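@channel anyone free to eyeball this complex?
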Amino acid sequence: MKDNLVQYILGIADNSLILGQRLGELCGHGPSLETDIAMTNISLDLLGQVRSYYQYAAKLLGGDATEDTIAFLRLEREYKNVLLVEQPNIDFGYSITKQFLFDVFHLALLEELQNSKDEMLAAIAKKSIKEVLYHNRFSSDWIRRLGDGTEESQNRIQTAINDLWIFTDELFHQTEADKSMVAEGIGVDVTLLKANYYKKVCAVLDESTLQTPIIEYFQKGGKNGIHSEHMGYILTEMQYMQRTYPNMSW
Amino acid sequence: MKNWPLWEVFIRSKNGLEHRHCGSLHASDATMAMENARDVYTRRMEGVSIWVVPSAQITASNPENSAELFDPAKDKAYRHPTFYELPDELKHM
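replying in thread with the prediction:
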């Protein structure tokens, strides 16, 4: 039970950690000062949420575990984030599409997680939801603006949608830990979020004069620790300081 | 992005106070200007309300006319209401 709860927490928090790290890459590289700050603000929001989850997981694990050991000292296969969030930024179209496809899911997940029987998870969800409401608003606005913008912006955002769509189905897969936590009334049954997710995403795409991709094969693996080739590079950069100077602190 | 118009941002730091000019930013439309203002100027709890105004809509005084506009007020101390005693509760006069 405890092990499943820890795995369940990591499954939620790792998404935000890896997406937060990806967004952090844009610091100083955003297309304009304003979007640069906006994207890194979102990154910091996500990392703040991650700290609450990891502190809780560390308490459950006991021993020497801390939020830092969980964030920085795991091996690639021990990270349980979905493949979507580890995809590279490429251009602003990809960054904001990835953000949008995640935000719609994230918001729906937290709305349900607020009702968790686990008081700590319910409290974290309640606190995080205000931030995620804004993320969702920010990324949806940009999809509309770029989709219904110039020919160039529309092409770029459509290309990003087409390429990233293949990673959306995994958001609704359940791991063994997920299933056991749903049975306990602690976890959210993500399979129930799927229909509404695609409805919401498609509505924004329609408004933005973008095409919804039609594909039958979807990528999966991240939730079980089987990641894409990008993950190793992310972890190398993210873990560098702790691996090179163990136990270093500011 | 170079073509994005400039917007002036006004923030009210708390209820009861006035909006104050705090800076400017670039945005393609009012919605974006509002979101950018929120992200750039209120990240450290600086405000409870935001106004954004297209900079082009502001008519500014010309620095060359400063002498005729402002200098005449310099020697008219009697226009300052310094002879009134204000109650302590009035903090923002």
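from a first look: Residues 90 and 153 of chain A are 14 Å apart (CA to CA).
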